[in-house]
Specification:
Layout lengths: L1 E5 L4 H12 L3 E6 L4 H5 L3 E4 L5 H8 L4 E4 L10 H22 L3 E5 L11 E4 L12 H16 L5 E7 L2 E2 L6 H10 L5 E2 L5 E2 L2 E2 H14 L9 E5 L5 E2 H11 L8 E2 L1 H18 L9 H8 L2 E3 L2 H7 L7 H14 L3
Parallel strand pairs: 1-2, 1-4, 2-3, 4-5, 5-7, 6-15, 7-12, 8-11, 9-14
Antiparallel strand pairs: 10-13
Amino acid sequence: MKTLVTGGGGFLGRYIVEQLLARGDEVTVFARGAYPELEQIGVKLCRGDLQDPEAVARAVAGMEAVFHVAAKAGYWGTWASFYGPNVVGTRNVIAACRRQGVPKLIYTSTPSVVASSHDRAGADESLPYPTHFESFYSQTKAMAEQLVRQANSDDLLTVSLRPHIVFGPRDTQILPRLVARARAGKLIRIGAGTNQVDVTYVEDAAQAHLLAAVALEPGSALAGSVYFISQDDPVTLWPWVNALLEQLEVPPVTKSIPLSLARTIGGVLETVYYMFKLKGEPRLTRFLANELALSHYYDISRAKQDFGYRPQFSMAEAVARTVEYFRQQNF
């Protein structure tokens, strides 16, 4: 099968690429940068920007399935920096798929599209989008996900997956940032430390995309649907973080502040950064405070039922593989 992966040079995207290659697909990656290591393993690289509709159309031409993984992630930035890649880029991918006659579009979404100021314990896909967003990332990803859902038709079948807190070897964002802050003594627990969250091992997150693509057929339950993806084993966040830090010989998190205070500090920092157009990102925002203090884990029964997704790795195996990788990197 001829498949395109947008953002195939990124963390999750690369695992999807490798699994597609392993099953015998002819894989093209659409990305802004150069990835010679991908070309060395047989991937065709098509360089361009998601906001360039003609570049996207050229990349999509002749494909039998498109995995749209690329996105602007993060909890801080301007509206334009998120809206362009996440909304305009997704609109361009949908238009290109229609124009080029691509039959399947598999979209990488996020549970952040339903983030709120309340615990989300065992929620399923019926959970509505919030009426107010405290993050441009979650807002623009929600907009993009709705575009994908609305695009589903007999000519273009779509499905959206929401893997939660993807971790594993080659992670360049979540674990490295946690470790850097912990080593600098800047990682502070928000809330009581009893909140439970879902995490997803990267190889299982990638596998979910391939399984969904195979099951996405006319008349299937997947068409136009969304699915939460996780290890199906919620962790108590702060003890889990400290256990990871301990295995990496990094001091544990011992300081804490209440969520109410964290949200106040986050709101002040957001205002200061916007008013004075400061570079970088604030250490804390209201959205980040919520994510670090509240429970957010989800029922993945529909993914199990509709396309047979089940994690192939236990939490213990996933953590062990991750720790071993970073130890080898002298992290």
